[in-house]
Amino acid sequence: MIAIFSYPLKKSFCLPRVIFILSFFACFVMLGDTLCLETVQAQTIGDATVEFKKLAEELSSTRLAGGNESQAQLEKALVYLDSVAISALNSAPGPDLDSTNRRLASLVSQTSPVGENYRLLKIGGSPSVYAMVINFGLGGPAAVRIYAGGAGHYSLAAQIDHYAQKDFLDSDIELVSVSATDLVFVTVSGRTDDLSTGAFTAWQFTGHSVAAIWNSDLLQQSSYEIEGNGFRIAYCSQVDDDRPSVCLKMSRDLFRFGDGQWKRVETSELPSLKPTAK
């Protein structure tokens, strides 16, 4: 009796060991595949980042050298930035703008970048609409990309660049949101010369496209600030023709968006600025 029942018991004891060994081996193989996949993905991301930095540097240097800019190169660089933004916006539990902007800051192509920066920000709306402000370095092109769609469904909804908007002054772009409910914002171009000469454009995002609703002239000695739901600009409104660096009259205008229109609601004169001693 004892001999008869001892053999099956021994087999039943060995079977779980075999299952355990096979399970462990399967887990090891799966873990290896996962680590291999992560390594390949990291290498792919690294290669794409290196290629983007090369494109950004070429876009800047080509303009500085007076060469012909490649629309294909610009679009390729912009598509890479779109992938970074859309991945961040569709991540759970929601976008982390600080973390995303740190990653974007690491994409600069130069050790000491001058005028090169990439920044993602919220411009308003419900669900929220986001914009990326893109400057490809000193002398390089600039662009704005707008993303909409809601949680888990964000995609590129509109773009502002000199190929899409022929009159777009793409020099050292800044962006400020003016009306979160109406999705109106202002782009500020230039203002990097000695006279802080800048151009200002108000835009409205309609959900599927973006349209310019106001453009300023080139404004010398310009500065701006947000005031509630208004946009205020100070600038030289009368220049001395004989001495262009001398401003004879400074003005300040306040603009607001209301009733579907961009309006100047207030203007005033300021003390004239004296030229900076050199």
SSE topology:
Elements lengths: L1 H63 L6 H19 L7 H9 L10 E9 L4 E8 L5 E7 L6 E6 L13 E6 L4 E7 L7 E8 L4 E6 L4 E8 L2 E10 L7 E12 L2 E10 L8
Antiparallel strand pairs: 1-2, 2-3, 3-4, 5-6, 6-7, 7-8, 9-10, 10-11, 11-12
Keywords:
four-stranded antiparallel beta sheet; disordered N terminus; globular; 278 residues; alpha+beta; 12 strands
Describe the structure.
It contains three helices and twelve strands, in the order αααββββββββββββ. It is an alpha+beta fold and 278 residues long.
Find the count of extended strands (DSSP E, 2+ residues): 12
- SS field, number of helical segments: 3
What's the Cα radius of gyration?
Answer: 28 Å
N→C terminal distance: 112 Å
Task: Give the oligomeric state.
Answer: single chain
H/E series, N to C? HHHEEEEEEEEEEEE
Average of pLDDT: 84
Anisotropy-based shape? globular
Helicity, in percent?
25-40%
Structural class: alpha+beta
Low-confidence stretches: 1-13, 18-24, 34-43
Strand order, sheet with most strands: 1-2-3-4
- Binned strand content: 25-35%
User: How would you sum up the major sheet?
Assistant: 4 strands, antiparallel
